[in-house]
TrEMBL record:
Domain of life of the source: Archaea
Protein name, UniProt field: Cytochrome C oxidase subunit IV
Lipid bilayer topology: Multi-pass membrane protein
Keywords: Cell membrane, Membrane, Transmembrane, Transmembrane helix
Native source organism of the sequence: Natronorubrum aibiense
Transmembrane segments: 7-27, 33-53, 65-85
Statement: the UniProt record of this protein carries the keyword Cell cycle: no
Length: 86
């Protein structure tokens, strides 16, 4: 189990990443680049949360692979739903 220092560092990193998402839209970069940066930061934040706060780092690799497969299936379902709407 990670210590208080680790959780504090992860919290500060999540706070910084959340602030960076706001800054992307406030500085003068193109909107598409800001959206792409926001997506990348969201993936990083999700990995930090799943790894540390949901303790996936301490689980056997088979559980991690199962979770990754589930996320991939949700992604495929989302793409299929978006395709059927258009």
């Amino acid at each position: 189990m990670a210590g208080i220092r680790t959780y504090t560092l992860i919290y500060v990193a999540l706070l910084a990443l959340g602030t960076a998402k706001f800054v992307f839209f406030e500085i003068g970069i193109p909107e598409q680049a800001a959206i792409g940066g926001t997506v990348v930061l969201a993936v990083i934040k999700s990995l930090l949360i799943a790894g540390y706060f949901q303790h996936l780092r301490e689980e056997p690799r088979s559980i991690t692979y199962m979770m990754a497969l589930a996320v991939f299936m949700v992604f495929l379902l989302t793409v299929a739903a978006g395709y059927s709407i258009q």
